Amino acid sequence: MDIASLTGIQSSYLEQFAEDRKITKTEDESFQSVLSSMMDALNETDELQHTAESEEIRFALGESENTHDLMIAETKASVALQYTVAVRDKIIDGYQELMRMSI
Description:
The protein is mostly helical. It has a domain at 29-100. The chain has helices spanning 12-20, 31-60, 67-100. α2 (31-60) runs antiparallel to α3. The longest helix is centred in the last third of the chain and has 34 residues, at 67-100. The radius of gyration is 18 Å and the shape is elongated. The model has no long low-confidence stretch (mean pLDDT 82).
């Protein structure tokens, strides 16, 4: 699944959601704020991965017969991981571009 196609989505619901969660337009644009935001995103990705793993274990042990919960957890974890990898790649590209600059 390519998440690059998600960049053109415009919706009042998404904008309201982002504002409510203070995802966009932070007043503090310091490095500490950006780093804190990225660490929160990494922690959320890790939490989603653990949730998917626990759902897989529950399903394998027969504690859960609902495959929908399993697929939802796995899909959330997959999308979060793809997003995290895409952000990491962009950060590395930006760093490499800075290192190529001559002073």
